[in-house]
Amino acid sequence: MIDLSRREVLLGGLGTAAAFAGGFGAAARANSADHVLTVSRLDHEIMPGKPTVGMMSFSPDGPPPVLRLKQGREATIDVVNMLDEATVVHWHGLRIANAMDGVPYLTQNPIEPGETFRYRFTPPDAGTFWYHPHCNTLEQISRGLTGALIVEEETDPGFDADLPLNIRDFRLGGDGQFIEFFKPRNAARGGTIGTVSTVNWQENPVHDLPSGGLVRLRLVVSDVTRVGSFGLEGADGRLIAIDSNPVPELMPPGDVILSPGQRVDYAVLMPEDEGRQVQVVLRRPNGDRVLARLRSSGHSLGRRIKDLKPLAANPVAQPDLQNAEVLDFVFGWSPEGNAPQASICGSLGYTFWSINRIAWQGDVPGPLEPLAIMKQGKTYVLRLRNETPNDHPIHLHGVTFQLLSSNKRSVAPLFTDTALLLSEETMEVALVADNPGDWAVHCHVIEHQKTGLTGFVRIEA
Ligand code: C2O
Ligand code: CU
Ligand code: CU
Predict the structure, then answer these.
(1) Which ligand 1 atom is nearest residue 130's CA?
(2) Residue among 422, 412, 358, 360 nearest 391 (CA)
(3) Average pLDDT over every residue of 200-216
């Protein structure tokens, strides 16, 4: 374990930390982590010829790496903070020990500049997840800190290729430089939309994939704001998983609405002929926007949709609805006159939103009051009521929940960690409280999260 005491770093400055992070001795290497994420500032070209100054990544020299872990196998990840501000990293959707969940003060202290924090956990579920900071979250994510996290199945599902697409916008001006990350009037409504759409930090990239091959395409919507309808054009395929959980029946790859934090996995059958293109598109009222293209390359592998094997379900406990207790959560405006507290994890300076009439005061040391207390092992039905005219993708850490019903639409009984609540929608979801700890619950429109729409629930052992 790299042990940089804070004092050493402050005395030595960032140079010392950099030297440390770059060149461990043999002794340190013997104890090295499986993965190292070096949280760094960098200049990077998103718009051709106009490098964006002051991006942030989990790598010093390019986009965040795709983290690949194995289901049921312990992983260690060193997060080396080379920023000049605190950070902390959360593993979105992973049901792991609370101390590894990466929420400032609730589960750990922020990682100070120059410090390294070692995360160690065993992912119980396979699928498509992602990782991102939970400190100064709007700015750090806006500058680039979102990465795809893949947990590979214990048994290989046998795809010919596997392609994660990290889908997000950046707010850049015509000169390629960041413009303001949000506008207060938008934060009090639907959120502030980006100006440049990217996939894996590229505008409309082309990926070569085997002709006639079965490809696992993993869409990760890591944007701070955009709720979108996504689709595939030019290939047959199947929708195989949503939010890391295999769907009970393979579905044709129709359009799917994804909100910030959500993921979908498609099995795509690439065209047989070389050089054909498949498009991943964002549906828009004024015409589709192509986000990425997949190009068939090489001799056809001649695969068929019927070659697809269903993915094994994740070991998520089935809710016991007969004996469930109902808990109410109301997402609404914040009561007047609520100023957020200053925090080393940043504040947007406004409070607009609340959960159960309580606006989150910011990421500050406790003691903090949970919105609800659950008993380990019991089933709960959460009644999620959106009393606002805006959409809110509600995310709960640490557990997986099942969609039960909505007052606005029919919902499939999917297992997820993020449920999109439409305007004035009430949804019921159920979960088995099987992971003890204090778990954050918040809207994943980060401007909402950072202006009050955050809280936590406690699962007591
Ligand atoms: Cu994706 Cu609390 O986070
Ligand atoms: Cu999360
Ligand atoms: Cu929201």
Answers:
(1) 1
(2) 422
(3) 98
